[in-house]
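pasting Transport permease protein for the record, 283 residues
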Amino acid sequence: MSKTTTLPVPAAATAAARLPATLRVGWSRAVLETRMFFRERDSLIFTFSFPVVLLVLFGSIFRGEFEDSGVSVSQLYAAGLIGAGLMSVSFQNLAIAIAVEREDGTLKRLAGTPMPPAAYFVGKVLSVLLAAVLEVALLLAVGVLLYDLEPPADAARWATFAWVFVLGLAACSLLGIAFSSLPRSAKSASAVVTLPFVALQFVSGVFIPFAELPQWVTHLASLFPLRWMCQGFRSVFLGDAGAALELTGSYELDRVALILAAWTVGGLLLCLKTFRWTSRREG
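structre below
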């Protein structure tokens, strides 16, 4: 009887075979994450309704138009809150949820399973992507129906909307994963994550025109992605008329793309550097 010889499998082929498996498991994790998210009705209602409530409140209280622009105050809020809503479902939700899962031992148990570690993050990001699409669609609908926000009228603006959405979501998701290692416990996670996020909204042009803020505030806000996300979305929904409200009189879309891409790379590096599968108490 002839002896069967087993040929060695090249490393590249092994990696190629592993990738589809990771994506399949990641998709399964995304389905599970999404189901769990929609079962938590209190959290679900708060997540989607909070930016809408802010839009209705500010849009109803502050009326009128900015001089020489034709842009209403409510339109400015609607465009800015689309960026804030996107950051809410990505950065804020991921940072808090992962901190809780680390504290209750979920991450440690998952790390001990055959599941590829990357599949966990694929599942999280896909779940966040669905939530982000729903959040932005809801805010856009309210802005259009109640506050005369004009959807993009040409393909170029829709393209800008798409890349600002993708880069903003990627940057904020990665920063949320990295930031999840900062809270010392699950109980403190909400306060530790929410405080800087709320502060960023007020200094990033969400509620106050960026050109009206003190110079030191604009310099500080320019270090973070929310300012640039909001600026990108204002370019889409406010058009040339809204450019006069910007600090430089221009939307600076090239800089928006560059900084959001830099935060995406930086967020990935921070994740690789800081992410922990176990709590600090376990070392």
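The CA atoms of residues 100 and 186 lie 5 Å apart.
The two ends are 55 Å apart (CA to CA).
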